[in-house]
């Protein structure tokens, strides 16, 4: 662990400026880790103060380079949808404007899982329903909450169709 005041005054100023100006909470958190370490705090104290794991603090304090602020960044600033291309997101938005009935489903509302399965078949990109809902949330698109009750036979048909769609995409 580096000694207290291991940062030069220029490094410290650069980190403080980045802390004030960055819009990414993860980046700011990592910058703060280095600044707290410079103030003589231990990894345990830093993890308790920030509210993250000891391992996270240890990793970023070792791998974060105060001379290269980009070493503290990752893709979260740009959205962490590594698999979801712009084309996928556009198709997702278009599909949510249609009813599942129009696309062969026996239900009237989309779920995240249903959308993920349908788009996996169309694009070959497999995401979880949670990831699809996260993308929709970022785009300020809400799926209808009201669910139409289906009798057991129709519900069984819908699940069977979903299984067929997911099997075809594999």
Q: Can you walk through the features of this model?
A:
The chain has 170 residues and is mainly α. The protein has two domains: 9-78, no CATH class; 86-147 and 160-168, no CATH class. The protein contains eight helices and no strands. Helix 6 (112-123) runs parallel beside helix 8 (152-168). The longest helix is centred in the last third of the chain and has 17 residues, at 152-168.
Break the fold down into its secondary structure elements and pairings:
Layout: H1 9-21, H2 25-38, H3 43-50, H4 54-63, H5 86-96, H6 112-123, H7 129-138, H8 152-168
Radius of gyration: 23 Å
How many independent structural domains? 2
**Shape field:** elongated
> Distance between the terminal alpha carbons, to the nearest Å?
48 Å
Helical residue percent?
Answer: 55-70%
State the major sheet. none
Number of helices: 8
Strand content: under 5%
């Amino acid at each position: 662990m580096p000694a207290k005041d291991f940062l030069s005054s220029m490094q410290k100023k650069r980190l403080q400026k980045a802390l004030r100006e960055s819009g990414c909470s993860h980046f700011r958190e990592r910058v703060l880790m280095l600044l707290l370490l410079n103030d003589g705090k231990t990894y345990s104290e830093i993890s308790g103060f920030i509210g993250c794991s000891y391992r996270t603090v240890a990793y970023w304090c070792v791998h974060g380079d105060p001379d290269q602020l980009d070493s503290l960044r990752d893709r979260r600033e740009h959205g962490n949808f590594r698999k979801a291309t712009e084309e996928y997101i556009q198709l997702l938005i278009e599909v949510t404007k249609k009813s599942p009935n129009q696309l062969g489903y026996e239900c009237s509302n989309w779920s995240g899982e249903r959308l993920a399965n349908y788009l996996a078949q169309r694009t070959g990109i497999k995401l979880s329903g949670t990831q699809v809902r996260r993308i929709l949330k970022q785009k300020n698109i809400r799926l209808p909450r009201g669910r139409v009750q289906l009798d057991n036979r129709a519900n069984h048909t819908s699940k069977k169709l979903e299984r067929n769609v997911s099997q075809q995409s594999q």
